[in-house]
Write a structure and sequence with these properties.
By secondary structure, the protein is of the alpha/beta class. Strand 7 and strand 8 form a beta hairpin. The chain has a two-stranded parallel sheet. Strands 2-4 form a two-stranded parallel sheet. The chain starts with a helix and ends in a 13-residue tail after the last helix.
């Protein structure tokens, strides 16, 4: 997947690409409004080597199955959220961000960083990986 491929992709039929491999021009594809989620990036072209196996089929990434319609988030690490659990995950993530932001604000206001890192609020709710 590269910028040119993203520009030519039938956007009406797809919300993006999830690849269990590396892709090229990920930033360019995202600038075109076409998210690409992959294990990494590579400068080499895939021309003549790219083989699309399917569209809309479940894919296995690092042992997790991603279904069409699942929510894919990629900021500081790739996360797959089943569509049916999206509201629950947003609620938990929002609470985590609020706790962390409150602690960061205290540090920025002069509280010792050592105290902030041992703040009981960081324990929060039990978050699960899967």
């Amino acid at each position: 997947m590269a910028g040119t491929s993203a520009a030519a992709w039938p956007h009406g039929r797809s919300g993006g690409v999830v690849a269990d491999g590396v892709c090229r021009d990920v930033a360019e594809a995202r600038e075109l409004g076409f998210p690409v989620f992959s294990r990494g990036s590579i400068p080499a072209t895939a021309r003549g080597r790219l083989q699309q196996r399917s569209t809309g089929e479940p894919v296995s990434i690092a042992g997790l199955t991603v279904q069409q319609g699942d929510v894919v988030v990629d900021e500081t690490g790739l996360a797959f959220v089943p569509r049916g659990r999206a509201e629950e995950v947003v609620r938990i993530a929002t609470a985590i961000v609020a706790r962390e932001r409150a602690i960061a604000d205290e540090v920025l206001s002069g509280a010792p960083g050592s105290r902030a890192m041992h703040d009981a609020r960081l324990a929060g709710e039990k978050e699960s990986v899967r």
